[in-house]
């Protein structure tokens, strides 16, 4: 049974589950929470990403985490935390722009380990860090990958069904949607901004050295479907989840715009070569740029400086937020980072991943190694039974 704020509830329903919506009034939410507890009588109340309770304008203003701790039916409780943010008190920059109101700029995380167990999934994380709180309850668990196993015959059959030739490469490129939604809420002219982003992405992919189909999954029309040289571009809106997974598992390369994309997790666990588009940012100088980037750089610097800032999650940033989980974490070696501001290096890496068998096998070996290192971890059900 799911209890969620409106945006989360819509997302949950999209995947076929029922979700009851919370409101934007604290008294209403307390009544809803008590009613749901008494009606469903759960053994557990699990919080998704409880560190967000101190985020900007909510939800701590409209929902009290103490209600869960003191729930009326005595249910056990815990928080799932993908990013290891629930184990420390910290103030982190949430958005890349320096010209924005403070309430939109900072993420205040809360150490929940004194209140409840915190369950941390691997991947993204890796169990090397420990909380400095002796009484903390941090439990790392292994995500299941059984349902992601496809043999070569299954992959070939699906590729044949969508018209991909044996010698042709399939690249699945998925734009992470939630950061773009945030950007739309707080940045002007985001459509023009995304148009410049798509320009450089297309410029990079036009340099592939063999026949390649680029399937772009995005609610924003980044490209027009076209065929130029070796490259065929197909631009689609959202796919049904089961179809999307089939494309991901049969792709020669998966690329996205967020280093914490759940699809990268699926690619890694499914042993599909994967990469994330990032930006190194920094103080760029026109003299150091390739000729292809000069006009784009001038426009971006004048009108859309956020494009030139560094990010691990396009376009919001999140370098500081993600530093903690990527430190000493072999997961970061299971996929490649492609720097948009270094297009030649990015083009070379894409071509290598697509057409160099040794490089592909090397990356898949790193994925295998990571999976073996987390195989000893328990599943979430075992942890909950233990607790």
UniProtKB/TrEMBL annotation:
Lineage: superkingdom: Bacteria
InterPro entries: DUF6365
Designated name of the protein: Lipid-A-disaccharide synthase
Pfam families in UniProt: DUF6365
């Amino acid at each position: 049974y799911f209890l969620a704020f409106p945006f989360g509830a819509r997302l949950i329903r999209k995947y076929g589950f029922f979700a009851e919506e919370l409101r934007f009034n604290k008294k209403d939410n307390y009544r809803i929470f008590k009613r749901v507890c008494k009606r469903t009588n759960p053994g557990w109340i699990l919080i998704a990403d409880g560190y967000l309770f101190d985020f900007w304008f909510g939800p701590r203003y409209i929902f009290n985490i103490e209600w869960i701790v003191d729930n009326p039916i005595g249910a056990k409780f815990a928080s799932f935390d993908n990013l290891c943010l629930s184990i420390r008190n910290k103030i982190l920059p949430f958005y890349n722009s320096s010209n924005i109101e403070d309430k939109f700029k900072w993420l205040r995380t809360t150490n929940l380990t004194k209140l409840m167990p915190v369950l941390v999934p691997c991947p993204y994380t890796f169990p090397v860090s420990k909380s400095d709180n002796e009484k903390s309850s941090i439990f790392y668990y292994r995500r299941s990958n059984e349902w992601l196993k496809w043999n070569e015959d299954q992959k070939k059959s699906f590729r044949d069904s969508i018209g991909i030739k044996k010698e042709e490469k399939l690249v699945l490129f998925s734009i992470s949607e939630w950061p773009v939604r945030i950007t739309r809420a707080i940045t002007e002219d985001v459509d023009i901004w995304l148009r410049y982003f798509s320009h450089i992405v297309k410029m990079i992919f036009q340099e592939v050295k063999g026949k390649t189909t680029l399937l772009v999954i995005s609610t924003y029309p980044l490209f027009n479907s076209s065929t130029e040289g070796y490259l065929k571009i197909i631009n689609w809106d959202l796919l049904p989840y089961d179809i999307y997974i089939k494309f991901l598992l049969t792709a020669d390369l998966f690329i996205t715009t967020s280093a914490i994309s759940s699809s990268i997790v699926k690619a890694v666990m499914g042993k599909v070569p994967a990469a994330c588009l990032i930006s190194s940012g920094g103080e760029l100088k026109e003299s150091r740029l390739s000729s292809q980037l000069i006009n784009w750089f001038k426009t971006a610097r004048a009108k859309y400086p956020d494009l030139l800032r560094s990010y691990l999650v396009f376009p919001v940033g999140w370098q500081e937020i993600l530093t903690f989980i990527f430190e000493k974490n072999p997961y970061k070696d299971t996929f490649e980072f492609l720097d948009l501001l270094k297009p030649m290096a990015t083009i070379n890496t894409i071509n290598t991943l697509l057409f160099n068998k040794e490089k592909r096998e090397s990356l898949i070996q790193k994925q295998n190694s990571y999976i073996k290192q987390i195989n000893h971890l328990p599943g979430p059900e075992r942890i909950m039974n233990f607790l």
